Amino acid sequence: MTVQKENILSLIDKLRNERLLCADEYKELLLCKDTDVLNYLHRQAQEVAVRRFGRRIFIRGLIEISNTCNNNCYYCGLRRENRNIARYRLSHDAILACCREGYLLGFRTFVLQGGEEDRGDGSWYVDLVADIRHRFPDCAITLSLGEKRRSLYQQLYNAGANRYLLRHETHHALHYRQLHPTSMRLEHRLQCLTRLKEIGYQTGTGIMVGSPRQTVDHLVEDILYIKKFQPAMIGIGPFIPHKDTPFAHEPAGSIETTLNLLSIFRLMHPATLIPATTALATLASDGRERGILAGANVVMPNLSPVAHRADYAIYDNKASLGAEAAEGLQLLTNKLAAIGYEIAYERGDYQPASE
Ligand code: SAH
Ligand code: SF4
User: Fold this and answer.
1) Which of 304, 331, 279 is nearest to 89 (CA)?
2) What is the pTM of this model?
3) How far is the CA of 263 from the centre of ligand 2 (A)?
């Protein structure tokens, strides 16, 4: 074995034992292309996840409540300036119906995700969350609705929301500028994340891997930020172009880099909830399974009304059927069984590691 290979393997052991490397060491790991070493990285991460959670995968029912968005992120098909999209907003009752269906299927977490928009003063969202909380007292409510005022985050929390997903997307100011118009500010996004955590939400952040102009140094910065922030959830998926965005002709992110990063996060954060994302499953037919075998412990099947799924196209060819669909839980069960895993039907809240 070459000295270099041995060095990287010992970095992986160090990461597993100490949960921390320095910036140069993360970079070395991210630049590594040796399949033996990367397989070792994934195996270590999988082992850490299994030790913590067993061979069990939490499921979250994803309800895409609206594809209407005031923002103009360059990467996303829901961006305001995309005119080539049929906009929808699910009604209060339609969302409750999704929850009811999900509950009967066995889901105990509902994730309400949507474009960033203000429905009036936000009280529409508060009433919705309060109603779901009242009707499904044993379920967790996760929100993924973008940047909001602190008072609204607080009201939503008080109404019964438990978790919030808001990816920071990149921690590098210039790179943030390359992904978003100037009306969106990295400082504000980070401030939102800090506020969410202060309020008491189990807060998730994350990035797209391979977003245009991303470098390995950016990824190292993201790792360092996530280490500092200590999120309850980490969402990482490959960037996938959407034909009606300024990034239509950019290449998709790499599945391999996504998996390597996922494993690094798992070794750094043994207790964190890390999904095998839909974007991974969209890029590769075995992407979900590969995510799990690299240390992921959550999947988020789609509970949205089937009639609207195609309209929630944040990127091209987004998977929303088969094992990505809530009604396809049997298929998901079979696919998990094939790699020796099973669905965990409980709420699966974040419990920080005590060890
Ligand atoms: N509006 C909310 C939630 C919807 S978007 C928000 O922005 O937070 C949810 C996530 O989809 C984003 O955080 C982004 O990381 C991801 N996403 C958007 N466009 C994407 C693309 N083209 N490829 C991969 N992921 C994308
Ligand atoms: Fe809107 Fe979120 Fe898409 Fe940005 S990523 S355009 S905020 S839906």
Assistant:
1) 304
2) 0.97
3) 26
